[in-house]
Amino acid sequence: MFERPESGEKAVLVHIGFHGQPDPEEVHEFRELVRSAGAEALTLISGQRRVPDRRLFVGSGKAEEIHEAVLAHQAELVILDHDLNPSQERNLERLLECRVLDRTGLILDIFAQRARSHEGKLQVELAQLRHLSTRLVRGWTHLERQKGGIGLRGPGETQLETDRRLLGKRIDQLRRRLERVDGQRDQSRRARRRAETPTISLVGYTNAGKSTLFNRLADARVYARDQLFATLDPTLRRVELEHAGAVVLADTVGFVSRLPHELVAAFRSTLQETAEADLLMHVIDAASPRRAESIAEVEDVLGQIGASDVPRLNIYNKIDLIEAARPRIDRGEDGKPAAVWLSAEQGDGCELLLQALDEWFAGTPIQRRVCLPPEEGRLRALLFRESRVLNETVDENGRFCLEVELAVRDYDRLRGNEPVLNAQWPALPTDLPCGHPMQTSR
Question: Which of 110, 184, 374, 423 is 20 to 30 A from 193, alpha carbon to alpha carbon?
Fold first, then answer.
């Protein structure tokens, strides 16, 4: 779409502090984003301003300093850790005589590199086109010229108008394709609800260790690296818990501060897995100095996608980087697990997490005794499959007497579907132990 060279890996970085000195942690995250995009950071130029300059964002003096750095390092790209409006981006490119990329464009580029699935590629392209639609005017040198010549005379449509029209058609086409994908995802979610299979969605700041934890729990091979946005396409795996049975674990894209609105809008269908989950596992980098800020950023994005009210379990990861930290479960006032401290990389504490998930979805296992006549062989086999049989005897009438242990949700389901069990097992009280979430979410 744009007549630009494919090169541009050598970059000058720019970060401006608008509330005092630039935050070192923000600068570090900016460098990590640039590294994730594959660019080589030649130098970093920082400064302070009270408000952005309307024309150049950074001010004329700072822009001249950046220009000198571009010439000295022979850079082909300037990346700003800020969002620019189209006119500021265009004015900077004219002054610096090289490409200029803002924070939104940088993150979109990382997403474009990481998208692997068909849906992910469609979502990234839609986000890119929405972002670029306001910047078409600087992509060409002949935009204001009308088409002319033999075979090209017509209503006098300018090249810019043509590009905008084609861009709008492509955006509409992508929307229609994503609507079809949304329908398929919704159908899968309905199937899981019919099967009463709970969904657990991993959320958290990018590079908090979600994919490493996902691989540890689900014995999967999801791409996991020490870089921002290593995971883009969502992955779902089935995990068996000791008492609660099967749950579906979903690994999702990580969040970041100032996440572009175009991405939140384009990835809304993917993030819907998070909004409709039965439990959110908020993975937190416990060793990060910006832990509180990262938690706040994640909560902000969860609010944007309508997932603020979904129950959650905080996972404090990377405790191997904290001196004297040990795996543990923190509980709330109601006795339910509220947080688990672990190291997904080392595997320490993962068994505590599985225990906490068991409590969330199964509560305290229920033990019951049932006597089945000889003709109920099918039900006997079902109990062996759906519960833990502690003991079995045969009485003088030839009945199978079983002592079983099973989860709350399996108890209710079997009791409701099997008249023999309904007659021998009492109904459970509404205040189930450990606050089983499925009783309220379905």
Answer: 423
